Amino acid sequence: xxxxxxxxxxxxxxxxxxxxxxxxxxxxxxxxxxxxxxxxxxxxxxxxxxxxxxxxxxxxxxxxxxxxxxxxxxxxxxxxxxxxxxxxxxxxxxxxxxxxxxxxxxxxxxxxxxxxxxxxxxxxxxxxxxxxxxxxxxxxxxxxxxxxxxxxxxxxxxxxxxxxxxxxxxxxxxxxxxxxxxxxxxxxxxxxxxxxxxxxxxxxxxxxxxxxxxxxxxxxxxxxxxxxxxxxxxxxxxxxxxxxxxxxxxxxxxxxxxxxxxxxxxxxxxxxxxxxxxxxxxxxxxxxxxxxxxxxxxxxxxxxxxxxxxxxxxxxxxxxxxxxxxxxxxxxxxxxxxxxxxxxxxxxxxxxxxxxxxxxxxxxxxxxxxxxxxxxxxxxx
Length: 381
Ligand SMILES: [Zn+2]
What we know:
The chain has helices spanning about 25-30, 35-40, 60, 135-150, 230-235, 235-250, 270-280, 295-300, 325-335, and strands spanning about 50, 55, 80, 90, 100-105, 110-115, 155-160, 170, 190-195, 200-205, 210-215, 220-225, 255-260, 270, 290, 320-325, 345, 370-375. The protein is of the alpha+beta class. It has a domain at about 80-265 and about 350-380: 4-Layer Sandwich (CNF1/YfiH-like putative cysteine hydrolases). A six-stranded mixed β-sheet has the order 3-4-5-18-10-7, covered by helices on one side. A hairpin with a 2-residue loop joins strand 1 and strand 2 (about 55).
């Protein structure tokens, strides 16, 4: 387990993820707020966890993981960095050797949002325009993230309205917001962004879905992808690398990629329909799923926790299929021609670490958003 005291500058009370009910009607009406629907819409064992004194009860937290090889270990590697402005974020080991590259995966730590934490807790870094948070807070948080990554809070941030598609948006000229708010105009729909334009950050929002960042070391181009299960089935990452070849002449051997924090196989129970979709698309689909054993001792001991975990029509009680979205996206990077050593997995399972990440599943849809950003320095070396 992560020891929070080892990474914080200041002692702070543990954060308590809000477990209030989701408000799907509101969420659907808000641009950029649809990104986690495909992760959160199906019940999973972890949804019935007990919250004890602001932290997840350990006995409950282990539910559904006993027989699984998690996509991440419980230890965070690397530890998150803490920027002078308080923003905690992950960088990719080795990427600091690419002098022209900006990049980072945010956490929930830092920022000014009060909507998802306990009253006495410090503010949080919600980077999505969610129904519960003030717009001004999100704009401020985005500036703080830009400052943490680039040193300049005014660095333009380009985002998309994420729609669980394989639609890719390629940025040519710099995107400038006439109202002075970076990256909010014009709105784009899609789940992948790429550019060779220096001086801006591309941002993908997640709260369980898988963010993937890619950089072309030779051609100096960058990309960011949003991969929930639907986007993964539609090969957003594989198609995205293909588009980089077209747009920038990228060669796979020059690409490096990082898969950021998302819900790992330990916590990602899915319905049979998801399994069928993957089976229809990928020859290696069977390698991406694990059946959780119904003889799990935790299930036997706490049967009540499993009675309500699945919506009608989903798999039978007592067992479940768990999908490894991280491995699925790693396979797409490999199929696109990247070398295994060029692909890194950074962070940890969002559902297992509520003190560090927003999790759509872990909070039943009422949560903030993290952001994964990548860009090219204005005055690259
Ligand atoms: Zn997990």
